């Protein structure tokens, strides 16, 4: 379980998690979006893929700790490792 946050010495970090289906996993949402875009007259589309983007702000004592907490969030809730790949970016907040 994650340690409590908001303590002395903690800084604000902004994190983004981009969750996408792994190559070879069916993407009906992307397929339907492509069909709809073509019906609207957008030509030349080779592929359309759906992606989820999670943006969050969190407090941690370092960027490494913030990244590890977000990694834990991905493993426990935000992504299914069987069908998803994910990428995390973390930067210090203002």
Structural descriptors:
94 residues, 2 helices, elongated, Mth169, Chain: A, alpha+beta, single chain, three-stranded antiparallel sheet, 3 strands
Overall description:
- The chain has 2 helices and 3 strands; from the N terminus they run βαβαβ.
- With 94 residues, the protein is α+β, with helices and mostly antiparallel strands.
- Helices cover 30% and strands 32% of the residues.
- The protein has one domain: Mth169, Chain: A, CATH 3.30.1280.10.
- A 3-stranded antiparallel beta sheet has the order 2-1-3, with helices on one face.
Return residue spans where pLDDT drops below 50 for at least 5 consecutive residues. Answer: none
Number of domains: 1
Helix content: 25-40%
The CATH C-level name is: Alpha Beta
Query: Looking at the structure, what is the overall shape?
Result: elongated
Number of strands: 3
- Helices, by number, come to 2
Question: Taking strands numbered 1, 2, ... along the chain, how are they ordered across the largest sheet?
Answer: 2-1-3
Q: Tell me the Rg in angstroms.
A: 17 Å
The biggest sheet amounts to: 3 strands, antiparallel
Q: What share of the residues does DSSP label as strand, in percent?
A: 25-35%
Structural class: alpha+beta
Distance between the termini: 27 Å
Order of helices and strands: EHEHE
CATH topology: Mth169, Chain: A
Concise summary:
This protein is of the alpha+beta class.
